[in-house]
Amino acid sequence: MALDSDRYASRADTAVLGACLVLSLVALALPAGLREPVAGALRRTVLLPVLALQRATVQAAEARVRLALVRAERDSLVLETTFLPELRAENLRLRDLLGLAGRLGHGFVTAEVLHQAGVADATTLLLSAGRDASVEPFAPVLGARGLLGVVRDVDAHSSVALAWTHPDFRASAMVEGMAIYGIVRSRRGEISGEVMELVGVPYREQLLPGTRVVTSGLGGVFPRGIPLGTVQGVLSEASGWERTYLLRPAVHPSEAAHVIVLQPARAQDTLAAAFDTARPGTDSLVLLRDSAGMRVLTVPPRGRGARPAPGERP
Amino acid sequence: MRISEARIKVALVLALLVAAQYVLRPRLGDSRFAPDFVLIALLFFAIRVRPMGGTIAGFLVGVVTDAVAPTAFGAAALALTVVGYAAGWLKAVVFADNLLVTAVFVFAASWVRDGIEVLAAHQLEGGALAWQLLAFSPLAALSTAAAAAVMLVLFRGWLRQHPA
To answer: Taking the model in full, what pTM does it have?
Structure first.
């Protein structure tokens, strides 16, 4: 291909255009079962170096931003570790008395979200953890404030997650602390991809604006208690049967830089305590305080009752 | 000899743009509005070769782009094939060292690419489709055009097209 060659398209140019267009249309028409192996092969070969480069870039940028925070946290941890043994013993006693389950101390991996170009990818997330980090299909993907999506395909070093904004995404949901169930999906139509809707709520149950909606744990994919969103108002109602509510999502995929991918063993757990949803206004993951080895996304405000000791896994 | 040197310089700029896509772009905030450096590289390449070269390059870049968003596999390939061919065909109109024309050209190419990709992907509908095509896509095209203009200013000497 010479620089500055012919001005107009020849027959060969037109033929190549036709061939590429046909191939593109064939790719678009491929069933999901064939699409993913091709895409996965490209990610494992051609895209491997650039994805590695991007992962390193994201991690480097994150490291710089978090350095000051990590130093401050390290100092706090050193101080608080002094009281660790007695706190641990006390916590164990109290949890035993109350019959509480343990917190999220294991069974998850952290991953970076590798944002990519393209206007059709707002509904999928490319994660930097794959089979090598024990990520499996259908693993829930959590952000700092709630559910982001679910892992769909897993490669050796990366995975593709379906964000809740995807038209196919559904999550069994319940009103926090009440036996009111429904299904959460992204709102299609006017403001698609920006808000959720809670469908199938019994007509006799009326939800007030501000009511929190969390995963119900039914279905065996998402553990119970992961925040999904907050009720904004009624969208529609089938008189005498059910109501559909508009939800403001707890977290939007475009905000996500780091995520937690749960392992299947956690699917039957209850994560309400991990998200601390019982206390209004709480905007950070308690589960992030579970492990000193994890990156802390937000600093929980002080003075909200007893904080667990750093590194504690009661 | 001169042409070979020019080719090497253009190749270096293209490699720089591809690297920027994965090193710089993640740091530029919301990916919906961030400039698409790979598209700029494709356009800079396509206006220097026959339409056939632009078409093949567009198709290959599109397939690789699709690999990270497999729900719409083929949409980016389709869009970039058209854009690559059109850029190769329009090279007589677009001068690589004309800042304004190049910026307008990149803006239009980015918007057209988004339009084809969104419609082919068939993931959005109604108001969301309108928002994407009339708000997000033009903003992304604007940032891409600005990035292309910056590249042209920085590498004007390297990107100047020599007569055949």
So the answer is: 0.57
Report the residue from B55, B66, B132 with minimal CB separation from A17.
B55
Q: Do B26 and A58 touch (CB under 8 A)?
A: yes
Kindly list the residues from chain A whose CB atom is less than 8 angstroms away from the CB atom of residue B69. Answer: 116, 118, 120-121, 124
- The ipTM of this complex is 0.83
Share of chain A above pLDDT 70, in %: 74
Q: Which residues of B touch A125 (CB under 8 A)?
A: none
Nearest residue of chain A to residue B124 (CA atoms):
A192
State whether B27 and A57 contact (CB < 8 Å): yes
Q: Is B121's CB within 8 Å of A120's CB? A: yes
pLDDT at A90: 85
Beta bridge partners of A172: A183
Contact (CB<8Å) A119/B118: yes
Identify all chain B residues contacting A150, using CB atoms and an 8 Å cutoff. none
pLDDT tier at A126, thresholds 50, 70, 90: confident
- Interchain proximity B64–A117, CB inside 8 Å: no
